[in-house]
Amino acid sequence: MEHGTENQSRLKVKFPAEFILFDFEYTAWEKSDERNWSGPGEHREIIQIGAIKVSATTLSETDSLLDYVRPEKNPELSDFIIQLTGITQTDIESRGIPFSQALKKLEEFIGGLRAYCWGRDIEVLKENCELLQVSTSLSSDHLTNLRPLMAPIFLNLGVDIDAYSSGTLIQAFEDEPLLKAHDALNDMRNLLSAIRYVREYVTIA
């Protein structure tokens, strides 16, 4: 892989000294992504929340959060999402907690820190709050989509991020991720591993 140098000084992402990476897994069906979840009764209900706390100085994980969430509108998981994520109906029924409770735990975990996702998780969070009539203290003051911020960096390195998810981006640098993708916590740990490969482009705000 060729590392580009043109405008490298402009390709910097500033992180606070400590920040959060968070991710959601949510209900889906065969081709529901292509339909934009427009099928009858289809909702992107969160079924798993994963988050890690990161030291920007060392790009190391200092704490983690993982919760399973019971979907209310579609309590039975589809075969598609079970196969994609490895989350089973037993996981949801035995380990799942209500969305309101899981959201509260995420809010407490984030605290006053800046939290980053990779893609549409902020949109999905808003949808779940509206769908289930749950309010949240999380806002644009806390949450940022990291994908558009880092896209120019990976493009400069010859990496097409459209070919990867947050959990598989590490494949641009290694043969396979050490952790299985499409698990909310694993995805953020894999994403952090990918960020370490471009640490020369990371600064502390």
TrEMBL record:
Keywords linked to the UniProt accession: Exonuclease, Hydrolase, Nuclease
Keyword Nuclease included in the entry's annotation: yes
Signal peptide residues on this chain, from the entry's feature table: none
Record-linked SMART domains: EXOIII (SM00479)
Chain ranges of the Exonuclease domain: 18-204
Gene3D superfamilies associated with the record: Ribonuclease H-like superfamily/Ribonuclease H
GO molecular function, one term: nucleic acid binding
Protein name from the UniProt record: Exonuclease domain-containing protein
Organism: Candidatus Kaiserbacteria bacterium CG10_big_fil_rev_8_21_14_0_10_59_10
